[in-house]
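Posted in: Protein Modeling Q&A

I'm a second-year student putting together a small comparison for a lab meeting, and my supervisor asked me to include a predicted structure for Multidrug resistance-associated protein 1. I've never done this before, so apologies if this is the wrong subforum. The sequence is pasted below exactly as I got it from our records. If anyone can share the structure token output, I'd also love a short note on what stands out.
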Amino acid sequence: MHVSNNYSILVPQNSSFLDSPEADLPLCFEQTVLVWIPLGFLWLLAPWQLLYVYRSRTKKSSITKLYLAKQVLVGFLLILAAIDLALALTEDTGQATVPAIRYTNPSLYLGTWILVLLIQHSRRWCIQKDSWFLSLFWILSILCGTFQFQTLIRTLLRGSNSNLAYSCVFFICYAFQILVLILSAFSEKNDSSKHPSTTASFLSSITFSWYDSVVLKGFKKPLTLEDVWDIDEETKTKTLVSRFEKYMAGELQQARQAFQKRQQENTQRNPGARLHGLDKNQSQSQDVLVLEETKKNKKKSETTKDFPKSWLVKALFKTFYVILLKSFLLKLVYDVLMFLNPQLLKLLISFANDRDIYLWTGYLYSILFFAVALIQSVCLQYYFKLCFMLGMKVRTTIMASVYKKALTLSNQARKQYTIGETVNLMSVDAQKLMDVTSFIHLLWSNVLQISLSIYFLWAELGPSVLAGVGVMVLLIPINGVIATKNRAIQVKNMKYKDNRLKIMNEVLSGIKILKYFAWEPSFQNQVHDLRKKELRNLLTFGQLQSVMIFLLYLTPVLVSVITFSVYVLVDSNNILDAEKAFTSITLFNILRFPMSMLPMIVSAMLQASVSVERLEKYLGGDDLDTSAIRHDCSFDKAVQFSEASFTWDHDLEVTIQDVNLDIMPGQLVAVVGTVGSGKSSLMSAMLGEMENVHGHITVKGTVAYVPQQSWIQNGTIKDNILFGSELDEKKYQQVLEACALLPDLEVLPGGDLAEIGEKGINLSGGQKHRISLARATYQNSDIYILDDPLSAVDAHVGKHIFNKVLGPNGLLKGKTRLLVTHSIHFLPQVDEIVVLGNGTILEKGSYSTLLAKKGLFAKNLKTFIKQTGPKDEATVNADSEEDDYGLMPSVEEIPEDVASLSMKRENSFHRTFSRSSRSSSRRLKSLKDLKTRNVNILKEEEEPVKGQKLIKKEFIQTGKVKFSIYLKYLQAIGWCSIFFIIFGFVLYSVSFIGSNLWLSAWTRDSKTFNSTNYPASQRDLRVGVYGALGLAQGIFVLIANLWSVYGSVHAANILHKQLLNNILRVPMSFFDTTPIGRIVNRFAGDISTVDDTLPTSLRSWVLCFLGITSTLVMICLATPVFVVVIIPLGIIYVSVQIFYVATSRQLRRLDSVTRSPIYTHFSETVSGLPVIRAFEHQERFLKHNEMATDTNQKCVFSWITSNRVPPLTPKGLQAGDLHQRPASPASALALGHSKLVVPFL
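Accepted answer (user: helix_wrangler)
Welcome! Here is the predicted structure, written out as tokens:
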């Protein structure tokens, strides 16, 4: 192949190839630079890629057909490179000199194809078989080879066959490269990874095609949790938290050191600040005590303001810096490419106005337009995916860290937070951080966009742009003042909302009383009064927001009017032409987004900083110090208190003081004393729940705990008793019988599989205590701490439980038992009695020993027997459940139809009279019956017993939102208001089209007049009308927005009234089967959506629809043939939207449904912390929380992915504009606005 001949022919074109009527590059450039670019890219990145594979290698995967096909094709490329080199060597026999490039290129390709074979083989040790940089190499190679491909085709078409062999080799190589790229688009599955995103190829990842199967399934039928893929290991809660904790530990330690330094400096400045007041043992008047306490509280509130700060953001940054860096680079590329659009538009308008430029130049600009838009789309979608993933991971990390901290937080730190406040840390504060991290890059991106816009505007219009910038700067403080007022209104509104929800909580908690006394209207009026105040604030907020939107829409128009006016007024030579006008308009429109977003981002960051401080205070709080509780398995005593003093708060008096107590293994020790003597505190101290002052407690073996206030989980009775342990049927039935639960299980629908409501709402006090005791009894622990378990049961039930469980012959015989009790008649049967008073041990010994001593115990016992009488059973606590043993649950406890309840009441009445005749054989029979019944229930799980499932599952709506729902909201706004709102926005769109058409006509003046004879009257008319149309846009938007605010507030008022009215009139059975939290959520979350989200969404939808319509109208006016293109594009786009929206909508619902259990479980955990810690089940609860969070995460991840399918369809609009050469400013207008329609789509 005599390349030199072609080369010599084409060399003269080097200097003037852009002036050629055909799009062509010099052959030397094609065969050198365009060949070396992809090869250089591969060889530079190959070492790094091979090192990465070596470090992250996993188990070697089996050989697949796809792997073989790719290797075979690259093998063929290697053979073709060898043939090409052989052709070059055989041609080196004539007189003509063969260029060196003919040897070097095949040699380079030989080495390259061997390297590709090696890389493809090494990927067998990776989970993701396809390499992103290999895919980029194939794309680069094909794109660069396109020029040489068309050159060779044209050469052959001219009839030159001298290079036929070389051409054939090149064509075959080119075809094989395309085939390899196609094969690289397919993903190879890996057995070790369940999630397809981890094995997806590069092309599949950037187009999100790996997700198509879920979208298809979601389009065919509503998705369920089983249809959503699990997240990969890197995204799982456990992995994220362990990585975060590694950095958190270091940053928190530094923050604590800085905090201690601050405290030392404050102490040195105020040496007299540490004044402790009077001695607590001195006699003080009540006034002095109150004053001292007030000062102490004030001082305490001042000191608690300071805590370890400025560590959370640093720890989060170090944890997720890789995602931040990737998203930063993608956003940077997107922003730079965004400013290429005005420059390309400028070139296109120049091409449209110059007939001498060759047609292929226009096509080149069109292709560049499309390519830039395509790269922008891919970058933006991947950037959004990374940012939303970052937000999701941050939220998950915060939620899991807050939960983990709750399990270890000290009582002193925990006292500062209610359960509701702690849940808010997980929900509200974590969500705020998620929102901010999703858009964190806009902080620097907005500044960059504003700077670049001003720079390019300066290039177009010179110093005139400073006038427009000055206007923007003047409007910033106005927006700032409005934003400050809005924030103050929001704070006030939140208080009204809190008060309204507080009353709603009270109403729902006491709904039975309200219905008994017919107080619904009174409370309804109270709620309405608060709602009116809330809506008045909401109206003011909406009015201020409308002014902000008015300024936002007016700013670009005002800036462009002032800039253009100054430009044409300062110099008579400055005439506005299409090129300058529409390039500037495009830049002004780019400027609109950062100008509007920057204040919002700053405001969001200020709000997030409050959340960061709250989280830093909570996560940086002191952990529970259990160093005073020593666990020794080889100790000879079960429990030993050694000079143990404990307090609930170091600022308060010591609660447990200098206790010395030895408890031997297997002993039953009763702890007695008056109310407030420290019995429960002694048990809490042993569990490590109190702050140690001095001394220690030694414990031998595991502990089980029955608290004074029973803690019951939302679940079945069986789950509550087993508490994570394996089921031993025989032992389980013994525990049920011993704890007197069998008669209750006979009555409850579903027996032990009956669901217990929130906080055991459908159980009586005694039932809850017995289940709590059964839970402890079932655990095979060494020490049992029983804090007054008999307080809420009847005397005969207490006797049964003592004999069967606690006593010398009970199930717990041989175990160490510490029993806090007021039931004096059980004391003769215990091994030792400990009498407490004011936190110290007053007496201890056996029952007979203490009576013989005739001390405090004997004296109190004698007094008590005199007061109660010899015939009465000595139980101190008379507030016990009525007929608890076998008691029939009440109406609220098991909601069913009235007839069945009446029958059960009668049965309960008869059973009460016949109870005394029950014998032990009857109980054995009931035990057998229960076993049989449980087996039957298990067999018939598909048809559960009526009433077994108490709490109704929240209904998940499927499919698209019904049209009647939209009509309901529109009807609430008012059809008259709807008409005027839409009419106002239509007038805005008309004025928007008018201003752009007027600008188009203005630019024609540059052809009609030159700089010397441009009339001043014509200039003033153009500026005046353009300004008037711009002002009209702002006014119409303001009117439409104000009307929208009034309409939406009216709708919010009507919908809330209807909701409240309905809730107060539903029957009691509804409240029995529906958790209060779910009803409150309707008044909190859903009403908040009606107040804030729906009005904004309605306005956005109308503006987007009219924006697209007006833009398309302008394009079609300029180029009517575009109608032919837009109809099929519109059909395709709408079809794609319908296809993907079904999945996205259902995933959003699943996200909402899977989030509730996380907060419910957290609330439940916080209320039962002492029990969880006592049983040492922290890891089990942590695991449960991680599973619940991961379930929610997989829904969020899928939702993020479903929304990130690159919208490539709208990009066709921009490429479709150049079907013919534009020749007017109107065409330039169409080109400019084809860029604007894409964001709306």
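A couple of things worth pointing out for your meeting: The radius of gyration is 39 Å. The mean pLDDT is 77.
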